[in-house]
Specification:
- With about 80 residues, this protein is mainly α.
- It starts with 18 loop residues before the first helix and ends in a 6-residue tail after the last helix.
- About 0% of the residues are buried.
- The protein is extended, with a radius of gyration of 19 Å.
- Helix 1 runs antiparallel to helix 2.
- Helix content is about 60%, strand content about 0%.
- The chain has one domain.
């Protein structure tokens, strides 16, 4: 029976995005879009998530952060009905 080697690699540390990193990423996405209307739509959406991300405690930008933002959007769109 073959023995398994233990994975000794350390996980890559997550980094917290700074405003400069976010701005560079936003510009890279916008510059990749050909249509002006797409650029405007993406700019608006990205500025909203950046504003939200900046107002929250600084977390590394990950899938969990995106899911939290999605939850915030769903709460805005579908406010709970008083019982």
């Amino acid at each position: 029976m073959a023995s398994r080697q233990k994975n000794t690699q350390r996980p890559v540390p997550r980094t917290i995005l700074g405003l400069l990193d976010i701005e560079q990423s936003k510009n890279a996405v916008l510059n990749s879009l050909a249509a002006q209307s797409s650029q405007e739509s993406y700019r608006h959406a990205m500025e909203e998530i950046i504003t939200w991300y900046s107002s929250e405690p600084r977390l590394s930008f990950s899938r969990v952060v995106v899911l939290r933002y999605r939850f915030v959007l769903e709460q805005k769109r579908f406010p709970s009905v008083p019982t």
